[in-house]
Amino acid sequence: MRYSISKISQIVGISSEAVRLYEKKGVLRSRKNPVNGYRTFHTLDIGTLLRCRTYAQLGLSLNEAADLINTKSVEEAYECLSRQEERLARQIEMSQRSRKRLQDLNRQIRCCERDAGTLRMEKHPGLYHLDYRHNELILEGAQRIEQYANWSQLVPLSFVSLRFPLQSLLRGEQNYYGGLGVMEEDAHFLGIEEGKYVRCFPARKSVRTILKIPGEKPIAPEALRPALDYIQSSGYKPSGDPFTRMVVTVKRNQPDFVRYYEMWIPITELN
Length: 271
Prior knowledge:
The protein has 271 residues and is of the alpha+beta class. Helices cover 43% and strands 28% of the residues.
């Protein structure tokens, strides 16, 4: 039996325009009714449309679905769907990692006011860091900027991060690098490696604190003095560049807005 576009669209639950689009892509083949000249479709086309909708829900584009419907062999169909299975698996893992990142961020936000200024020793997670500015000056270089733009597409697995050269900090100098960070466990998944502009901070013992910074003020060396004093009084010394992870900003549209950062200062025991 053959049916009109309106009947086919009604049964499948899509618009007549969508049926025409599938026809244009070569998924369906209509035949003109010799009596009234209207295009009609075979009942088998209903199943074809449902398969196309299935492929769409599996993440294939309209063109990919059309190619799959008209595939030349079973093997070709298998290869196409296998590639899509791999893409979906990666998307699922990305979603799972994003959910974990969200849970972690919410835990930080919930406790950031309470933990502001508190100090504790813990093993900081490994971090990959990409600088894009030195203090307020954006660092030049087409490759660096391109890499930063690529990392920006990795949110929420990438996040705002600051790095403070240790020797400058110990001299009391206002000196830091702004950039993006990616946790080590996510970096492996994303294929990130150390390079000309990317530094890795392996997981190690550190002092962790939450910094509460008002307005547009940079994080001054004085803000880290309590942490440095705590490290020394505990029989340790700073042994690597401190770095931060942005937690949350409050009232950003107000002059008195506040930024919260999670900071780690790597340490080793005094000899």
